[in-house]
Amino acid sequence: MTAANLVMLVLWGLSPESPPAELVDQLGSARYSQREAAAQALQSLGSAALPALRAARTSKDPEVRGRVDALLVRIESELMVRPTLVRLDFRDRPLPEVIAELSRRTEIPLVFDPDNRESWADRRVTLESPRPVPFWTAIDRLCEAGQLQHNLSTQDVENGLEELDATPTPGLYLFDSEGAVTGRWTSDSGPFRVSALSVHHSCDIPLGPHFAGQMDEPADEQFHVQLQVMAEPRLMLSQAGPLRLLEAVDDRGHSLLGSDGSGGVEELAESQQEFFDGMSFSPGALVQVQADLSYPQQPGRTIRRLRGVVPVVVAARRPDPLVITLADALHRMIQGDGYRLIVHSVKPDPENEGTLIDLAVLPGGAASGPGSAPAGPGVDLSPQGLENQIEILDAHGKVVPWSPSSLDLDGGAIRMMISVPAIEAVDHAPAKLRFYSMTRANSEAAFDLHYIPMPGH
């Protein structure tokens, strides 16, 4: 925070180390400078300020509510694009115990391969570091010590729900490496990991009717590296613009950038930007992108360096969802944070012997009509967005699978029929609905990859 705001806090008997609740109280001060100083102090506290800010969202003071909402968005967005730091203090511990503890510390499900569970019980690993390490570093260390590989998982295999076609649960699926080398062409930045998946080179020579040793048209040559951008499984990921190459050179010093010497895109056509704006968040927190390169006349053996950035948008659920009991919510207007819900009906579905829930999601406050007020900043009233924000629970509090069977968009509001299939021998009758607000942030997944094999070597 600025020196001026620090001085103001001290004059009022406060400091950035004051209890967050005391700083939140100052957001409603009659003095603008005092409100600003308290807001900056809360932002500097980061995650430590979140409980007090969330508790103040229902304040009767509109000034406090407005500042609290803005601070929550700002702090949550900043935290999202930081890597999760993990403490490694495991010495000669059974592998399943280490996996379970890392999952608890990161709050990211690390999913066992059920076929290997018994053999893993005899493996013991040591993972130690003098200071916390980023999530992807911790996973690499775990895989190396435990002879494992990993893939992003969207099934809660540990709880056996994959057999029930359960609602996807983001996590990391762990299985035996079988001697495979992992992480060789990867680059980490913040919560992102960029991996080189493959290198492609082809050249098509057109053979026209008058071909006599001279090409009438230039050869169609393609040379690119297929990249995968992966976020920590706690996040949802969407590409927000084209990949920008900053450097591409082989081990002979040849530039592999385009003919203009640049790998960047200075200006997007309107249609291109609309394409990226319309991209939905990717299940499994990964997207694939293509780095287009220029193949040199005398290529080296490797791409010595490939460096660039991929613009992305990340999203995560806020930890305080609205939870409603379906039986008690019929035909009632239920107010959320920048949205309203109406459960019109809950009835049997004769087609799949399951249940149909007729749900309307409307933007704005309780007095607003459909389309008369925008949804709150944490609400995405689109079919793809709602799939990330809605969970259906059974009477035991377990998440059950669902899918939209029909959608009707009207002036920014959505009315949807939610189909909850019946699953034999399992009581998955829907009892509650959980609606999450979302936090979003724009970011860039930077990468710096080295010594990628060139085609033909």
CATH architecture of the largest domain: Sandwich
> Major sheet: order of its strands?
16-17-18-22-21
Low-confidence stretches are: 154-168, 366-372
Mean of residue pLDDT values: 82
Over the alpha carbons, how many angstroms does the gyration radius reach?
26 Å
Percent helix, as a range, is 10-25%
Main sheet overview:
5 strands, antiparallel
Head-to-tail CA distance between termini: 55 Å
**CATH class call of the largest domain:** Mainly Beta
Briefly note the CATH topology name of the largest domain.
Immunoglobulin-like
Characterize the overall form.
Answer: globular
Strand percent estimate: 35-45%
Tally of domains: 4
Question: Would you summarize the structure shown here?
Answer:
By secondary structure, the protein is of the alpha+beta class.
Description:
With 457 residues, the chain is of the alpha+beta class. Helices cover 22% and strands 36% of the residues. It has eleven helices and 24 strands. Helix 1 (3-11) crosses helix 3. It is globular and about 70 Å long. Mean pLDDT is 82; it is low at 154-168 and 366-372.
